[in-house]
Amino acid sequence: MEQTHIRNFCIIAHIDHGKSTLADRLLQATGTITEREMQEQVLDDMDLEREKGVTIKASAVRMNYTSQDGQTYEMNLIDTPGHVDFAYEVSRALQGCEGAILVVDATQGIEAQTLANLYLAIEADLELIPVVNKIDLPAALPEEVAEEVENITGISAEDVIPISAKTGANIVQVLEAVVRKVPPPHSDPQAPFRALVFDSHYDSYKGVIAYVRVFDGELDKRQWIRMMSNDVEVEPIEIGIFSPAMKPVDKLTAGEVGYIATGLKTVRECRVGDTITQRDRPAAEPLPGYESVKPMVFAGFYPTEGEDYTLLKDALERLQLNDAALVFEPETSTALNFGFRCGFLGLFHMEIIQERLEREYDLDLVATAPSVRYEVVMAHTDEVRIIDSPADLPDEGTIQEIREPWMHVQIFMPEEYYGVVMDLAIKRRGEFIGQEYPAPGRVVLKFDLPLSEIIIDFYDKLKSGTRGYASMDYEFAGYRASKLVKLDVLVAKVPVDALAMIVHEDDAYHRGQKLVTQLRKLIPRQMFEVPIQAATGKRVISRANVKALRKDVLAKCYGGDITRKRKLLEKQKKGKKRMKMIGNVEVPQEAFMAVLKLGDD
């Protein structure tokens, strides 16, 4: 098709504002799928995506639409994830488009991830089409929300299209706006072939399938290709388009969106953001903006049954084929035996991976408390070590300073919760940067916060403190030196490495006390007394004892001399002492979960 009749666009929104439902209605309105094939969230084909109502993987679809002027247009919709953890994938998907439909919920207004994705779209220089969704709901305020959109984007409130993705109201208006406002691709069909990889997944028959937007030139199905970041060369098994199922074609031309089945065996060789060119006529330089995805949150995954270790390894390798952002390496723990240290983009990403491992591969896992990656500067050599597990932290006498990752955080909320959110952020070592009032009664607070304070329960506390009205978005701000110490937990005087954590010096005492109190309730009583201690370095800062189970040895002494009773008690005491020397204590799984529940009560 001629380039002037191609429209590449995406839909950006906050979670649960109706992005996937709008995509369904567009597919129906253009006749891309029949009524018989129709199901909710067509483009979300993973069970978890349907359950949580969140798009986890980007996907694409081609629609043919005949507009009111009688022309037929090829419309390529790139569906993007909405969660902050997948912001890099969103930025790559936006790079492949010329326009974006900005969806805002008529009952909730603009939220943090709406703003974050909006800024990404503006950076990518996309034409925006704002729409207000869910106008069929009784609580909808489409006029007020349209004014909010006008205040932020500068697009007149009259140009904001009120729609209901559920009932299909005004969907044709959205399609007409895409045709009218989104510019066609500015690509050079004669230049050497260049295509941006905006997502990829693994197929057991076709290898890695790269989702691409072609910027220059054209690719025939028999031509060899090269990845520009790592010079991997391969002959494609198949090239094609999404409609919405994969449909092979003979060639992909400039401006189009499609897929290339590479036959490669690992997703690492074909990463998101890479540029594909032809081997025999390569492009001079790749498309801008490629960077490798950096994991931010780390946790240990251990099988509850030791013999499941190889199953867990296979499952992680298979998951990594479909998710190049997941990284893992083998790890051993004295308490939990063999497992893997895994890196994730964020806590939500970790939750998704854990659920997929447990469901799709039928594994029973113990996950340690999530931690972040620290930079440790050694005292005498000035060498900088990267530490992503508290167990790897060197002895404190050899450390000059420890640096931790900080984030720029934006919190979007109604004005009445100003004090609650301010209090929460300051308690978590937050530094107030500034505020904005994008609409009457709404405020955006900006903080710098340590990532370690955000990852465990900050979001839950934010939601409960503001009755669900606040939303947040964050981005990496860099490493800063902080007074950090390693908090060790000793059960029966033996350190449990999986319970160790790195905390701020000022919080160590309270954290240690809370953790010891929690563990005392969770560790089952033994035949001997079990001391539980929290220590920083060589100093014990908190202790509690799990009382011994005692048999009533005096039950058979009805009367008689006190010395007889004392003799029996002394005998019992010796037995307990001997047991304590040879006994060992098993720490239950709930104890590891207790670390996650140490938030401010």
Q: Which characteristics define this entry?
A:
601 residues; alpha+beta; Rossmann fold; Elongation Factor Tu (Ef-tu), domain 3; Alpha-Beta Plaits; six-stranded mixed sheet; 14 helices; 33% strand
Explain how this protein is built.
The chain has 601 residues and is an alpha+beta fold. Helices cover 25% and strands 33% of the residues. It contains 14 helices and 32 strands. Strands 11-10-16-7-8-15-12-13 form an 8-stranded antiparallel beta sheet. A hairpin with a 5-residue loop joins strand 10 and strand 11 (233-234).
Class per helix and strand makeup: alpha+beta
In CATH terms, what is the fold-level topology of the largest domain? Rossmann fold
User: Mean pLDDT, as a whole number?
Assistant: 78
Catalogue the unreliable spans. 41-46
Strand content: 25-35%
CATH superfamily of the largest domain: P-loop containing nucleotide triphosphate hydrolases
* Annotation, overall tally of beta strands: 32
The total domain count is 5
Label the CATH architecture of the largest domain: 3-Layer(aba) Sandwich
Largest sheet: 8 strands, antiparallel
What is the strand arrangement across the widest sheet? 11-10-16-7-8-15-12-13
Radius of gyration: 29 Å
Q: Which CATH class of the largest domain is shown?
A: Alpha Beta
The DSSP helix count reads 14
Span of the ends, CA to CA: 61 Å
Outline of the structure:
The protein contains 14 helices and 32 strands. It has 601 residues and is an alpha+beta fold.
